[in-house]
Design a protein that fits this description.
One of its GO terms (biological process) is nervous system development. InterPro entries: Ig-like_fold, Ig_E-set, NXPH/NXPE. This is NXPE family member 3-like. The protein is mostly beta strands. The chain has two domains: about 160 residues, Immunoglobulins (Immunoglobulin-like, Sandwich), CATH 2.60.40; about 80 residues, no CATH class. Helix content is about 15%, strand content about 40%. The strands form two sheets. The protein has an eight-stranded mixed sheet with strand order 2-4-7-6-5-8-1-3. The protein has a five-stranded antiparallel sheet with strand order 11-12-10-9-13, with no helix packed on it. The two termini are about 15 Å apart.
């Protein structure tokens, strides 16, 4: 999706203050050394809407049928002015989406000048989004909007980000004895996952704790060698947590 505008001479602009968020948090702005305004902005940015549950692929957001328009579009603008863009999300049946959570990116650019600026996308949680752009250069400019992930895919990513599913698996190498009669064993290793620190393997476990970070590394217990015979580890297999329906949502 793209659109074109023309920008001319400079006129100063006053930025609107960032609205405060009403979200509460365990820690405060002073704890992390930032202003209350910036803290509110961060809390608002992290508060991502939750979409409706869908059962069919065609109910997810479609990049083909979604669209945008420049609000109050004029033939020319002045440098320093703002333009507003409204994005309307639709599903694959061309129906308007009734909830938010889509991950859109929007930018203003000029290919000849090799200039561009991204706008902040505001989610209105009803299937529409707005973007404000500051016009910083003189000449032509185009607006480009891209759907990075549908709201449905965003929630899948969030679900597995917050889970203890071990997507990457590692091999631990245990060795002991002289070179000619050296005993070697290879077992599966990983970080200690889960709120309860549970490990999915039955023959559990050798643990190695980093005293600086508190991170615990776990390996299956070797059949013959002791836990102190771990020599090194390497990357092993990768495992996708997605079920078949989720895999289809990630497809292009």
């Amino acid at each position: 999706m793209n659109g074109e505008i023309h920008i001319k001479q400079f006129q100063p602009v006053r930025h609107k203050p960032v609205p405060r968020s009403n979200n509460s948090a365990i820690i405060s702005a002073s704890d992390v050394g930032i202003s209350d305004e910036e803290w509110g902005r961060l809390q608002k940015a992290l508060d991502w809407p939750i979409p409706d549950h869908i059962v069919y692929l065609n109910q997810s957001t479609s990049p083909v049928h979604s669209s945008f328009s420049i609000v109050g579009h004029k033939e020319s603008y002045k440098v320093g002015e703002n333009i507003s863009v409204t994005i309307t999300a639709r599903d694959h049946n061309k129906n308007l989406k009734r909830y938010g959570g889509d991950f859109f990116k929007a930018k203003l650019f000029n290919s000849e000048l090799k200039a561009s600026v991204y706008g902040e996308v505001v989610d209105h949680r009803n299937g529409t989004y707005s973007v404000d752009f500051l016009l910083p250069w003189e000449g032509q400019a185009q607006v480009f909007v891209r759907l990075e992930h549908s709201s449905e895919v965003v929630q899948i990513i969030k679900k597995y980000r917050d889970s203890s599913f071990p997507r990457s698996h590692f091999n631990g190498y245990f060795e002991s004895g002289p070179s000619k009669t050296r005993i070697r064993e290879v077992v599966e290793c990983n970080l200690k996952w889960g709120a309860d620190g549970s490990w999915s393997k039955g023959n559990c476990c050798c643990e190695y704790k980093d005293i600086r970070t508190g991170t615990v590394w776990q390996c299956e217990r070797p059949k013959t060698l002791s836990c102190d015979k771990l020599v090194y580890h390497s990357g092993g297999r990768l495992e996708s947590p997605l079920n078949r329906f989720e895999q289809q949502l990630f497809a292009k």
